[in-house]
Amino acid sequence: MNAFELYNPTKLVFGANMVERLGELVEPYGKRILLVYGGGSIKKSGLFDDVMFQLGRIGAVVHELPGVEPNPRLSTVNKGIEICRAENIEFVLAVGGGSVLDAAKAVAAGALYDGDVWDFTIRKAVIQEALPIGTVLTLAATGSEMNGNSVITNWETKQKRGLGSKHIYPRFSILDPKLTYTVPANQTVNGIVDIMSHVFEQYFTLTTDIPLQERFAESVLLTVIENGEKAIKDGTDYDARANLLLAGTYALNGTLPNGVTTDWATHGIEHEVSAIYDIPHGAGLAIIFPNWMKYVYQERVGKFVQYAVRVWGIDPAGKTDEEIALAGIEATRAYFTRIGAPATLGELEIGDEHLERMADEATQFGPIGSFKQLTKDDVLQILRNSL
Amino acid sequence: MNAFELYNPTKLVFGANMVERLGELVEPYGKRILLVYGGGSIKKSGLFDDVMFQLGRIGAVVHELPGVEPNPRLSTVNKGIEICRAENIEFVLAVGGGSVLDAAKAVAAGALYDGDVWDFTIRKAVIQEALPIGTVLTLAATGSEMNGNSVITNWETKQKRGLGSKHIYPRFSILDPKLTYTVPANQTVNGIVDIMSHVFEQYFTLTTDIPLQERFAESVLLTVIENGEKAIKDGTDYDARANLLLAGTYALNGTLPNGVTTDWATHGIEHEVSAIYDIPHGAGLAIIFPNWMKYVYQERVGKFVQYAVRVWGIDPAGKTDEEIALAGIEATRAYFTRIGAPATLGELEIGDEHLERMADEATQFGPIGSFKQLTKDDVLQILRNSL
Q1: How far is the C-alpha of B223 from the C-alpha of A357, rounded, in Å?
Q2: Contacts of A222 in chain B (CB under 8 A)
Q3: Hey, what domains does chain B have and what are their CATH numbers?
Q4: Of A143, B36, B48, B369, which one has the greatest count of Cβ atoms within 10 A?
């Protein structure tokens, strides 16, 4: 186990109808609110009205940043920053899924920075402060509700990059499983793949002697696998939605990487695909992750054997380690296919035109990943195997 | 799953030699420090000198509260409160195991309260504020390093009671597995039992549809079972000590009870035993917990079946649920015995003289527990079965 620091001050408020507590949770931070949301589904569902009602009860002055895209754009973030400055915003409230939350975090950091918020993604500047943020989550996937990370896309340059800081942890996040009832099946599927991929990035590591972290990771995977299918079958299954939502939070709230050298290469590769093609993050991961697994498993076959046995219940009797490991990878692909996720870039009508550029961008600062360090050629090969 | 709130702002700093970071961690809170510690083992080990050196580097003024007892006493806590008031203490630093941390928390809360700190334990008053606290942990067991709870004993009235508040979460806790190398085997054993018991109190619940919380709990148990024996065999096995330490923290840092109705009856019963006999908490729990299990398992046999199969690897083939459940309970007892924990009160020379009083005290506010609500007669029976 490596040395590590664990710090996560987000208050999670979990349960049916918890939006009722919104006013009480926002009030300590001020009354001038920027409300960040997406394409309008929260208006259809009635959540927008509920949020406005609760904010009205504390006499809040609400400005709006609507229309945050699935891969949230720098231009939208900049719009939010302008509003914050012009209206002396005191608190940023994100209501939506991961992209809305990520956009709100970038807005909150950019509003107090005397420069271009993109600087944070290219490490030209470090976040020193941010407006306080709160979230009402409507989709199990991102983990953004309980961490200090954000991913935004510069649509002009087709670059998708991350920023992170302890200053952009949400002060609170409201998680009501009922708010995810209306998530369409395909988005539920993308969320499931996203959550599982977050776990993979922290589970497939060369770090040894981390039994608790491994079992925690397997716990999240098993919970998602079991409850994901239930939630797809019946979107209003409260327990399935609740278990999926909680698993999504724990996949990325700092519980799994304690003392572990994590990887994140596959996320890096996927970001290059969705920066160019604007596909859902979960769909890209469903295509690439099993191909990453096949490309790297020989670096530490034992870990993939453990994964196959503990997560997928592969019976090791009469099989070589190699066969067990491959069976686990096949089970992953089969599960993704069973729930309706894509298996090839071709299914999304993506050809080989930009693979070279994606591989270039993904490795622009050098090889990526830690389970196996991937050069540009490695990335290109994984992308070709994903066609 | 029930509704819940999760909030844990303690910063965990985990790894070898992390005491080097003490000055930097303390400095934001002030320089007038109360250093709380136990019977002097930190002087023998050299940790005391290391701590004083680090505090010296930031020019801290250090006052001392030494001699905190294994079941920390109200009288000692009151001594600490007096020092805080007389010396305008700004920060309370606990260096030791659970009892030292618990005493420090009570001191920190009491110092800013204009009344008797015992009021907090009998719910005559609620903690409104506390001096900031930091800890350097020397024993895997308590969980106190990352939660807002404390247990102290009024030796005059022979009462052991808890207090809790968000205000007494440590601001930071330093966990260096090497600091636990010198913990004697019997204390390592008590710590193992303590950690496992914390999990039991949150795992054996009537709440259903909590797969993630159940698997997390099983993860902690499996980690403790595997690494506990290694740590007893070789006290300087870094990975065993590290895994045990991290498991101890996760057993009681708010990860396991999310949305779960917890029990805590066995802790209540044990507190009454150790309030009178001043035995180690872990020893009392090793005796009582398997007897509690046998007394209550029929309330929900399925949960005990799951426990037996997943944690102890009991083969269910050809057995009734009842037999599987009992085999899991027997495996628990056998493990405690294998690592050298006591199985009966008699082994600690405790007879039946005060059982009636213990049962009375344990149930003074009504029946205790939730898996099965225990009346005075139930508690008395469990204690008799423990003789």
Answers
A1: 45
A2: 211, 215
A3: 11-179 (3.40.50.1970), 184-385 (1.20.1090.10)
A4: B36
